[in-house]
Design brief:
CATH superfamily of the largest domain: FAD/NAD(P)-binding domain
Number of helices: 8
CATH class of the largest domain: Alpha Beta
Order of helices and strands: HEHEEEEHEEEEHEEEEHEEEHHH
Bound molecules: flavin-adenine dinucleotide
Structural class: alpha/beta
Length: 374
């Protein structure tokens, strides 16, 4: 048996050794910027800083990019898309269905992408700009001057939390959890989606608080999914099966299911604060997805671009106070549309359990109607 003194000596040696090893390791992994999460927000931020010559590390929890998504990317922002970004179909119209299946058409300009391929292409672009990416490396802890992940640590002057709706960065900062919509989606082959059209169905019986979507991925395939915000009698997966099997359009949805995904997105609007000393929040971790439509790719990319530019300035002038400009600039771009959408979200919560109310109020609540903007 070990004596108490030997035991204590062993413990002290272990801690000393561990700390020494950590200090040496931290010194060897030294970055200007550490980005948590390799989604669109993180990849764009990282690319911008690396292109300006700074040392950038991305820590990604998973082995590959696999954010669940319907894949719609609007052409409303001026960010250069990589060539191999996985475009599946062009979208020129959104058709929104009321509960009685009457509908309203609105012109759109965007495309549906294979989302993992889209994200991977942004990461590839970041890597070719010099970003170092560590896959299967979830953030475990924020420590003074850096981060810890399984089996290692890294130091960085600036940290960006772009780690999605359930952001570990945010929870380590002690910020409150965001309200989320929960989604389920099938990729279906052997069905005929409307050409170049995204279809949106509002029906309290199948998607309480949210909606069902069909996004074509080709002439005979589509992403068919839904999001819910109210916990009803079923899981999102069960609601989706019910829509496909029982709804009035089920005849159009008798294709073969090739893939199932599930995920969540934030619906509580832009967070109150986006900058915490040298830590910035970008994308879903900052509540940038639209609380009604759920769209968040463009805002994450836009915020990533702004974050990248502000970070470059802060590093160039070695002045972390400049990071506050990220908050000002992003609020100027996103605060008003997200606040309007949050207001609509609160109304939708009131009306979403009854189809009569949805039928009556939908034009005030959905972005393609003129009444939404009044
Ligand atoms: C089913 C579904 C469909 C959607 N469809 C659309 C759509 O058609 N169009 C649209 O615009 N938006 C859509 N969205 C929303 C959109 O996916 C998000 O708004 C967008 O991905 C936000 O980008 P992001 O970079 O902030 O975060 P994400 O894309 O969520 O990326 C976060 C990354 O962080 C990683 N990560 C998480 N935790 C850690 C950790 N501890 N350490 C390291 N890495 C971590 C994750 O693995 C992930 O790669 C959809 C969402 C869902 C759930």
């Amino acid at each position: 048996m070990l004596s108490l003194t030997t035991y204590l000596l062993l413990q002290v040696t272990r801690y000393l050794f561990f700390d020494l090893a950590r200090i040496v390791y931290i010194r060897t992994m030294d970055y200007d910027l550490i980005v948590i999460g390799a989604g669109p927000g993180g990849a764009i931020t990282a690319s911008a800083a690396a292109q300006a010559g700074y040392r950038v590390l991305i820590l990604e929890r998973d082995a590959v990019c696999k954010s669940p998504c319907a894949g719609y990317v609007g052409l409303s922002i001026n960010i250069e898309m990589p060539d191999d970004c996985g475009i599946k179909s062009k979208i020129s119209k959104m058709r929104t269905y009321f509960p009685d299946l009457s509908y309203h058409d609105f012109p759109l300009n965007g495309f549906v992408v294979d989302r993992p391929q889209f994200d991977q292409s942004l990461v590839k672009k970041a890597e070719s700009a010099g970003v170092h990416i560590k896959w299967k490396s979830p953030l475990i802890d924020l420590v003074p001057g850096g981060v810890r992940f399984p089996g290692g640590a890294a130091s960085g002057k600036i940290i960006v939390g772009s780690d999605g709706v359930f952001s570990k960065t945010s929870s380590l900062l002690g910020i409150k959890k965001q309200r989320a919509a929960f989604c389920a989606q099938y990729h279906m082959n052997g069905m005929e989606p409307l050409h170049n059209t995204s279809e949106i169905f509002f029906d309290a019986d199948y998607a309480p608080g949210g909606y069902v979507w069909i996004y074509p991925t080709g002439p005979d395939s589509a992403n068919v999914g839904l999001g819910i915000t109210i916990s009803g009698s079923k899981s999102p997966h069960e609601y989706l099966d019910a829509f496909i099997e029982e709804s009035d359009i089920s005849g159009r949805l008798d294709g073969e299911i090739s893939k199932y995904i599930a995920g969540a997105l934030p619906i509580s609007g832009l967070r109150e604060k986006l900058v915490y000393d040298n830590i910035l929040l970008v994308g879903d971790s900052a509540g940038m997805a639209d609380p009604v439509t759920g769209a968040g790719i463009n805002s994450a990319m836009l915020a990533g671009e702004v974050a990248g530019n502000v970070i470059i300035r802060a590093l160039k002038h070695d002045d972390m106070m400049l990071l506050g400009q990220y908050e000002t600039r992003v609020r100027r771009l996103l605060a008003r549309p997200l606040a309007r959408s949050l207001e609509k979200r609160n109304k939708l919560d009131e009306y979403c359990t009854q189809n009569e109310l949805l039928q009556q109020h939908l034009p005030e609540l959905w972005v393609t109607f003129g009444q939404y903007w009044e």
